[in-house]
């Protein structure tokens, strides 16, 4: 049967095909990611399961029973499909397939746009009128490679797992341990956010098939925009905040012996940055290298010191390093005797002037000065 006009959501450029009916987060994101690239910026979209119509599409995602990047076919439902992102165990969905093949180009494009914006801001501050041309970032460069893997692990992999029915934890292991959920997560996962945009079973029916398809397609476009906004924020965060923080943490990691001979104290000079991911990676790299100027063989970092605000006279924080990124258990909490106290009372207990507080759980504390924070850490290390 011929495809009706309402199913063609946008005309011009190449044509993207995906399936009609109930939609999921993976194809909604796949379509959004494709449309971030110049080749697909004006792409049309058709939602159908008709093989004859799909055959007219330049690119097909999440339908058709075929994975062939050379022909721009990105389905994962066919028997025997077992493709994963390099180094990761989760079978890809259409989102993962598109990110695998196009993610580097998307990231390189975002990096180039940010660099151009920074140049324009600098030129405005210098009252310059000419804007230097900025080319795309190197898709095979170290920064793009790092971000490609990080964004897959932090965002896209969850969609792949959700669409392929992979639980966060091994169900058999959970059952054997007798674990039960303490509360509902409220359906805040990305898959649930998109799923709620599908029509309800008892929505009033449309007057005819074309109108029903038009309504469904509008909902799909809203879903693609919604998850696309979250994806764009994720890319922007890792490109503009997380990646620059890596250089700050690496510099502090290389200098940590200046503050503790065993390398157990990391000091972030000037301003706090997102440090956990980078610290664990740097420690792992140092351990794998066996010897380096970064201090391989030293003890793990136990405490991170940083100013509350990047301004003169700002107070200093002492944060305990968790056992792992998502753990609430510190490698070495601040002394139990200090916990829950603050100000002069804490000064007397700790024997250090300028104390501000120590959290009741012992994972963070503070002092009015850097010297005071270092004195607190020295006592905590000796405790």
Automatic annotation (TrEMBL):
For bias type Low complexity, the affected ranges are: 118-128
The ranges of region (Disordered) come to 118-138
Q: What Gene Ontology cellular component terms go with this record?
A: cytoplasm; nucleus
Q: Name one Pfam family in it.
A: MYG1_exonuc
Query: Source organism's superkingdom?
Result: Eukaryota
Among PANTHER family, the record links this protein to: METAL DEPENDENT HYDROLASE - RELATED, MYG1 EXONUCLEASE
> To which protein family does this belong?
Belongs to the MYG1 family.
Which protein are we looking at? MYG1 protein
Organism listed in the record = Cordyceps javanica
Q: What is the lineage of its organism?
A: Eukaryota, Fungi, Dikarya, Ascomycota, Pezizomycotina
């Amino acid at each position: 049967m011929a495809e009706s006009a309402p199913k063609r959501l946008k005309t011009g450029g190449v044509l993207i095909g995906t399936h009609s009916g109930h939609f999921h987060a993976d194809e909604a994101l796949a379509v959004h990611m494709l449309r971030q690239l110049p080749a697909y910026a004006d792409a049309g979209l058709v939602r159908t399961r008709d093989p004859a119509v799909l055959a007219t599409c330049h690119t097909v995602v999440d339908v058709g029973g075929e994975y062939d990047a050379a022909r721009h076919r990105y389905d994962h439902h066919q028997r025997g499909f077992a493709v994963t992102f390099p180094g990761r165990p989760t079978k890809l969905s259409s989102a993962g397939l598109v990110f695998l093949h196009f993610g580097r180009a998307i990231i390189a494009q975002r990096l180039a746009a940010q660099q151009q914006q920074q140049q324009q801001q600098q030129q405005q501050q210098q009252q310059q009128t000419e804007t230097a041309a900025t080319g795309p970032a190197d898709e095979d460069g170290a920064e793009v490679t790092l971000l490609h893997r990080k964004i897959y692990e932090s965002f896209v992999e969850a969609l792949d797992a959700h669409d392929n029915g992979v639980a966060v934890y091994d169900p058999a292991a959970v059952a054997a341990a007798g674990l039960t959920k303490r509360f509902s997560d409220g359906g805040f996962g990305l898959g649930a956010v998109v799923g709620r945009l599908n029509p309800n079973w008892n929505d009033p029916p449309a007057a005819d098939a074309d109108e029903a398809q038009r309504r469904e397609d509008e909902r799909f476009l809203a879903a693609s925009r919604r998850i696309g906004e979250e994806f764009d924020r994720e890319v922007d965060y890792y490109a503009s905040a997380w990646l620059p923080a890596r250089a700050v943490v690496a510099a502090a990691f290389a200098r940590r012996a200046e503050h503790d001979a065993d390398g157990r104290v990391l000091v972030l000079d000037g301003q706090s940055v997102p440090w956990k991911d980078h610290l664990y990676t740097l420690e792992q790299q140092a351990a794998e290298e066996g010897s380096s100027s970064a201090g391989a063989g030293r003890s793990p970092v136990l405490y991170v010191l940083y100013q509350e605000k990047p301004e003169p006279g700002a107070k200093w924080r002492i944060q305990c390093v968790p056992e792992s990124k998502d753990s609430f258990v510190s490698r070495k909490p601040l002394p139990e005797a200090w916990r829950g106290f603050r100000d002069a009372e804490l000064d007397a207990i700790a024997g250090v002037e300028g104390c501000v507080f120590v959290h009741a759980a012992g994972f963070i504390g503070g002092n009015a000065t850097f010297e005071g924070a270092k004195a607190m850490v020295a006592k905590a290390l000796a405790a």
